[in-house]
Amino acid sequence: MTQSNLEQAYQFCQALAQNHYENFPVASVLLPKRLRRPISVIYAFARTADDFADEGDASQEHRIEQLNNYSIALQSIKDGRVDNTDPIFIALSDVLKQHNLPIKLFDDLLDAFKQDVIKDRYQDFSEVLDYCRRSADPVGRLLLLLSHKPTDEQLQQSDAICSSLQLINFYQDIVQDLTESNRLYIPNDELVQFDVATKQLSQMNDDSTTLAPLLRLQYRRTQDLMLQGYQLGADLQGRIGWEIRAMTLGGIYTLSMLISQKDNALLKRPRLSKLKLIKIMVISMSKRLYSYQAKRLLSYSP
Length: 302
Description:
Helices cover about 70% and strands about 0% of the residues. The protein has helices at about 5-20, 25-30, 35-55, 60-80, 85-100, 105-120, 125-135, 135-145, 150-170, 175-180, 190-195, 210-225, 230-235, 240-260, 275-285, 285-300. Helix 3 (about 35-55) runs parallel beside helix 6.
């Protein structure tokens, strides 16, 4: 592999990241310059694998085949063979080598994407958390490992943040996930406990008053989990700390918007306005302001 081929592979991943996800350029501005290229490669890997699992009208078998091909390519890198012509894996092999990242985190991501193809219900909350451990937590760990040598406490805090952000995303998209993918991340045992039928969760404009006890349990639990991790951003220096504070605070604001909705409108999807996003960016510049605002929002109860 020539240096020119490697450079082209990196450029491919950066272009994919910038064109495929509207928020990526914003995140890139916050990140230290030295991390933008490796993170674009990680994003390209995760984004394309996630698309295999979710996008288009491919059969379940074809989706799994595509994800298995990614697993095979990862194994080739692990075995020291870089014979893949896919630019994502050309660049990823270099990122793994340069930064000594554990391949297991990428295997975990693929395992979660494969699960999305074949599993659409979860028996209890421990199953949901196990999914978050593989679908969300690896991303936070990779970011920390790229930036510095994190402590065990920092990794645990990152896991709490990433799982919380994943849960918040689930609760924003309950109706969309059900109607488009027939997928639900609220545990079956809690549906039974609160006498809620899945159909009741699929109508955004219906009165959700009877669903409120179930949904507010999900929100409280996510608040508690985020409280275990949110201080991570306040403990990190430089632009990486700013990036993590902004991502965390964006999730906390979204969660507070979910909590603030009236019981009869809990299935509506809250959205952060551009003004709110700017506010989050500004607050996140200061560790003190971030900590104050995050703690205040996480203490909120209607």
